[in-house]
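Problem: given the chain below (276 residues), write out its structure.
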Amino acid sequence: MTLSVIILILVGFLSAIIGSLVGIGGGIIIVPTLIYFGVSLNILGGITPQTAIGTSSIILIATGLSSTVGYLKQKQVDVKNGIIFTIGIIPGALIGAYLSQFLTLHSFNLYFGIFLIVVSVLLMVRHRIPPIKAFQQERYMKSFTDAHGEHYRYGVVPSIAIIASFVIGLTAGLFGIGGGALMTPLMLLVFRFPPHVAVGTSMMMIFFSSVTGSIGHIMLGHVLWGYSLILIISSWIGAQLGVRLNKTIKSDTVVLILRLVMLGLGIYLILQSFFN
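Solution.
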C-alpha cells in the first residue's frame, strides 16, 4: 500500500511538471505509467487501459486548472482563440470517451506510440514547413512579444480551428490525454502560435476537454477514485512548478523538450505493444 502511494505521488508530481511546462497536460505520461505499474508489474490493482484513461482524465482537470491559473497571471493564455477551440473540443472529447471502451492494451500502445512519433517529427521540421495561406488570414492576425524579446505574428481562422479542435477532443477522450499532445503542436505548426502562448492556451484547452471527457468516463465506471485523490494533490503542486519553470526557458527550448518527451514515449509505447 505504501509503495502504491509513493508511486502515485511521483507519477502525479513529475507528469504535471513536464505536462504544464510544455503544454501537454501530462496525460501521455500518466496513462502509460499507470498501465505499466498496474498491468505489467501488478503493483497498482484495478488498472486496465480504460481505468488508466478515465483516471488520467480526472487528474488532468486539476493539472489544467492549476496551470491555466498560473499562465493567466503571466498573460500567456489567448483566451479569445481558446474559446473558439473549446467549441470543437468539447463534443469531440465526449465521443472519444465513449470510444475508449473498445481499446485493447496492444492497440492503445501501438496507435498512441505511432501518433506521438509522427507529431514529434513534425515538430522537428516545423521551421521548414511553410505557413498555409488559408490559415494565415490577415483579419485574424495578432502580434505577441515574449519575455525574451522575440516577436511573433499569428492568427486563428475560426472554422478551421473548430474542426481541428474537434479531432483533438476526440483524441483527448479516446486516450485520456487532455488533448495537449496534439493541441500544442497544432498551434505551433498550423496557426504559428508563439511557443509560450501555445503552452498556456493548450493548458486551458486541457482543462475544458478533461472536464468533458471525465463525464463520459465516470458514466462508464472508468475512474479509480482512491488513486485519483492522491494524483490530484501531487499534480496540482507539480503543475504550479512547471508554470514557473516555463517562464525561465526560451521558446525553442520549450519545443525541444516537448519533442523529446513525445519521441521517447512514442518509442517506448510501440516497444510495449510487442510484449502485451
